[in-house]
Design brief:
Layout (H helix, E strand, L loop, with lengths): L5 H12 L13 H17 L9 E7 L2 E8 L5 E2 L12 E4 L9 E4 L5 E3 L7 E10 L1 E3 L4 E4 L5 E2 L4 E2 L6 H9 L9 E5 L2 E5 L7 E8 L3 E2 L5 E2 L8 E2 L3 H16 L4 H18 L32
Helix pairs in contact: 1-2, 1-4, 2-4, 4-5
């Protein structure tokens, strides 16, 4: 992460543009300074989607939640009553019990002992066993996008399958054969949704890209420059050139040369941000098990035909 502050970046931009160099930026009433700060923030927002920046990639892990309890329900109502406590329940939970259809979710928590569900049970129970499983988990507060194929059930050491399409998801919820040993997932609204529901304590996780490209003087993540002492994760030269380019565009100046310089800096910064594997034009199969280097010369044993 760069240690150059927003004030220093703006001062560099104004110096290169031949504009008066400000002593402060945040709260400065000068129209050029206000515009340059806005353009620099626009650069930060846009660079989020230009590359998978190393410092914006984070790990997110969480444990599944489930509650075993009891309740009473009938085949003529959408409510479950007599639950000892609904304090931990909300609409992110599904419910399992005798006569309760597949993919039945809580639609509202009505009281300390009653919830409403989305399907009418096919069979009633008095004091029957219930399992409420949380299947919708909140995404991280700074979530921007997922890193593909990093979604794992860490407890079982299996990769999760997904993201599922809406059509596939509906098949999982409504089809006859819709469960198996692997967890499937979907990003739906503000939630990371899993299927099937799991018992409590299953460790799940994935990598994601954060929207917090700026940092305060204390290192706290931010989504934009708001203080003179703020820093960012992007290379200084990319920030300066991009801001100048946007300034030229806003003023209607010719951008040919500055666009070329910006593009060269951006491509170099992206290439150097993370490592890359060496690719071979003549790859050979691996020999980690049995291969030419480790098969014995004799002693294969008798063959029976």
């Amino acid at each position: 992460m760069s240690t150059t502050t927003m004030l220093q970046l703006v001062q560099q931009v104004t110096a290169e543009l031949g504009l008066p160099i400000p002593a402060t930026v945040a709260g400065n009433p000068n129209q050029d300074v206000v515009q340059i700060q806005a353009l620099m923030n626009a650069t930060g927002y846009e660079l989020l989607r230009r590359a998978d920046w190393r410092e914006l990639t984070k790990q997110h892990t969480f444990y599944t939640e489930a509650i075993s309890t009891t309740g009473t329900w009938t085949s003529s109502a959408y409510t479950i009553t007599g639950i000892p406590s609904t304090a931990a329940l909300d609409t992110t939970y599904q419910v399992q019990g005798v006569g309760i259809p597949n993919a039945t979710y809580i639609t509202s928590v009505d009281s300390a002992s009653q919830v409403t569900i989305n399907y009418e049970p096919t069979e009633g129970q008095v004091g029957g066993d219930l399992i409420f499983q949380k299947v919708k988990y909140a995404l991280p507060a700074d979530y921007n996008s997922s890193v593909n194929r990093t979604h794992w059930d860490k407890s079982k050491r299996w990769e999760m399958l997904g993201p599922e399409s809406p059509q596939q998801w509906e098949w999982l919820l409504s089809g006859y054969i819709s469960t198996g040993p692997r967890i499937r997932y979907r990003l739906l609204g503000p939630y990371f949704q899993i299927w099937p529901g799991m018992n409590a304590g299953e460790l799940l996780g994935f990598e994601y890209r954060s929207v917090s490209w700026a940092r305060s003087v204390t290192g706290a993540p931010k989504t934009s420059f708001t203080a003179d002492t703020d820093t960012c994760i992007y290379p200084d030269r990319v920030m300066v050139l991009s801001t100048k380019l946007k300034y030229f565009e806003a003023k209607g100046f010719d951008t040919t040369a500055i666009f070329r310089d910006y593009l060269m800096e951006l491509e170099t910064a992206i290439a150097q941000d993370t490592g890359a594997a060496n690719l071979s034009f003549a790859p050979r199969p691996g020999t980690v098990l049995i291969g030419y280097d480790n098969i014995p010369d004799s002693g294969y044993g008798a063959q029976n035909f």
